[in-house]
Amino acid sequence: KTETMKQFSTTVKPTLLLVFAFFIHNLAIAQMVTPKPHFESTENRGSAIQISDPAIEDQPSLSVDQWQVSLENFGAVHHTTSVSKEAFLQLKEEAERKRPSPEQSTNSVISRSAVDPPLITRSFRGNVRNGSVPMDNSFAISKNGFIVSGINTNLIFTQPDGVVRYSAAHSDFFKLAGLGTRMYDPRVIYDTETDRFIIMCLHGSEPSNTALVFAFSQTEDPTGRWNIYKVDGNPLGDQYWSDYPNVSISKDDLYVTTLLRDLNGEWNYSMVFQISKKDGYEGKPIRWKYYADPKNADGSQAFNLVPTPNGWSDLIGPGMHFVSNENLGGNKYNYYTTTGNLESNPTLLSFQTAGLTTGLAPNGRQKGTVEKLNTFDSRLWSALYLNGIIHVGSHVSTPGGSVGLLYGRFDIANLKMDAEILSKPNIDYGFPSFNSFSDKEGDENIIVNYLFSGPDIFPSQGQIVVSGSGATFDWSEPVTLKDGGSKISALAGNEERWGDYSTTCRRFFDNRVESWSVGMHGESNSYATWLGQFFRQEDIAKPKGEFVADNTTSTKATDIKFTDITPDNPTVWKWLFQGATPASSDLKNPIVRYPSDGVYDVQLIVKTDLGLDTIFKKSFIHIQDPLQKPKADFTQDTDSIFVGQTVQFTSTSTGEIANYKWNLQGGTPPSSDMKDPNVKYSTPGSYLVSLLVDNSAGSNTKIKTKAVTVSIPTSTKNEILDIKASLYPNPVVLNQPLVTCDFEIAESTPLHIRVVDVQGRAIKILWNDRVKSGPNRLQFETAALTPGKYSLQIIDQNKIKSQPFIIIK
User: What are phi and psi of 200, to 5 degrees?
Assistant: First the structure.
């Protein structure tokens, strides 16, 4: 087997070596590696510790009230980069002009197949697109095989069989946070030391509503309970909002980096958030700090800091490493590190070195169309820490006109960057991610996950293995996880979004070298997502037992079905069920019950032609009593109204609730025992609202002292319905509840979009955030509505600009 690839390589010693004064840390196996002391560095001390409210506890998998709201904009997209929109477009046009025609392409090629390629053993469809442009794939897999996967609009929970056991829009998953429906850019992490998941989403695109929203799982099972928090995405209180998050964890803390944008979409500065993991897992008020506008070692503003997740099961700590590059092309590479965990009053230090010179990538090509795939700039998109080396990647230009895949190794101790560009004529690579692919932490094999396309290729998902150290780069032949089935043509114009991310994740289970990847490919002129499992070629002859269960967090005396999904056709099964009835079975797919609350292990021994294999999943089943003292909480469709208008209150209380008792100061009615009362306010002022919920285990009260502010309007007279909106299908039948609303606006503006009944009561706020100019498509589910007539109000600056009616049958 031979794969022709052009390689560009360099070994460049640092041109700027910088001081480091905090190398005295007593660290364990996954210790922080620090540069040797040099003569200069840049330090950012960061803020004092901030505190956000205690967690909202929720079990989203039990919720049936889901609206699945998404808003898709079909207009031209401006990606935030380190220069203005106008300057970036000029640079991008220059990159496109430098691309030779296929006839002029004179790539010199060499052959390499020094490492075995990865073996695809299992693959299946991931999240289904619901108005998501781009996909923004992120996922993680736990030791026992629980998978949490997110795209820009929704989350799914699955296991290695690919059966979706939970699916929800981000706004439905995080609804108890009370923030609304504008949620995007999910990031998913599995904590290998605590066996917990962390999900993060951004909320809002204005300074007043930007937030980082987090969910910390209480167990390894994502269908169980979560602790939900929100952190201000604009802690300086200026005119900017957070976008483009990157996420990682250390032994003690969660790190998030963002870019702060203005209302025109331009970048102004970067932000690093450092957050206590322990607080999140325990449901306590969460402590955090931020580093605003960090600087590179040369004094310039740091752009797009990428934190570095650890490639092994032992996490780094107590601090975190970060990297960045010159995103528009150049040879400077920046390294940053925090000096400790949140408890130690850490600072953020910056260093810089020189390495391979790169150029801004042209856009990706795709088969059968002149529409290009937007590669953004050439920032580092992904990083991985392993044994003192940070593995980094991007997509960059090549002399032959293709988009090459930059892979680099950053030696922290010596501030040394070795890099190589993987390229092939008429193939464009994009959005790489990295994972360890060896049975020992000290081995060199790295699996690279990426997207690829070309003039003769539809957008597809691929993987390759690279080995070596320093300036030695040994590549395997590539494998294709999923061939694209069509071009992507989802937006107006000739430029389509491509990724904008891919993710690969190591599963540390049963001493296996097992990796999983997710990305995006073209399907039906749009986007689709595929998940895949990989093993090493040398492990092909080993049995690989695997099983799943249809219900892993449940109540007592519930039937739970276990299914063997071992490949190679097992002929013998021996199950052991701790605490279950029956306690053992020799069936392929047994059904058991658990009579008592608790956490239980499951073991399966299978026999195939390859031999015996034992699969032991510790703490796999969670049985819990559902009756607990409830927790009161509520949301409302608005907190600011005019005299004579109404507010819809919605209980978001958790637990089994027998009674609802509302105190509605200043409202009509002044009190209510309904679950979700609608209240009219007739007098200007600010009013308290409280909700008490109870059951046989006890009661709990939620109070908002200034829940509603009522004011006198100036006028809304002679308003013009000037937003043309089409709503379909209409009428809607209950077994096909998805509704689409197409509308167009001339310029970007904040819009309030809500469903209103015939009495004028707001039933659901679908959107309350800025909407981009051009054609837009809003979609939502109506399964929560009873049959009747409703209107969809699109409101701009308190004026109804559109109000199409819809019938639910």
Answer: -125, 140
* Cα(307)–Cα(271) distance, integer angstroms: 12
Distance CA 122, CA 531 (A): 8
Of the candidates 412, 419, 420, the one whose C-alpha atom is nearest the C-alpha of residue 323 is 412
pTM of the entire predicted model: 0.88
Tens digit of pLDDT for each residue in 101-124? 654 444 444 446 789 999 999 999
What 3-state DSSP class applies to 173?
Answer: helix
HSE-CB of 744 using CA atoms within 13 angstroms: 6
Return d(Cα 768, Cα 754) in angstroms, integer: 9
How many whole angstroms separate alpha carbon 408 and alpha carbon 681?
A: 62
What tokens does 503 get? Answer: 């993710």
Six token digits for residue 625: 């009593």
Pairing of strands 698-711, 640-642: parallel
Cα 84 to Cα 703: distance, rounded to the nearest angstrom: 46
229-252 in b/e form (b: 16+ CB < 10 A) is bbbbbbbeeeebbbbbbbbbbbbb
- E strands of 302-445, at which residues? 306-307, 321-325, 329-338, 348-359, 372-374, 382-386, 389-397, 403-411, 416-423, 428-436
Which amino acid appears at position 680 of this protein?
Answer: K
pLDDT tens digits for 202-258? 999 999 999 999 999 999 999 999 999 999 999 999 999 999 999 999 999 999 999
Contacts of 155 (CB under 8 A, 6+ apart): 127, 148, 149, 166, 167, 168, 170, 173, 186, 199
As a whole number of angstroms, the distance between CA 711 and CA 308 comes to: 50
Closest CA to 597 of 634, 559, 554, 660: 554
Q: Give the span between the Cα atoms of 663 and 707, in whole angstroms.
A: 11
Instruction: Compute and round to an integer the Cα radius of gyration of the chain.
Output: 27
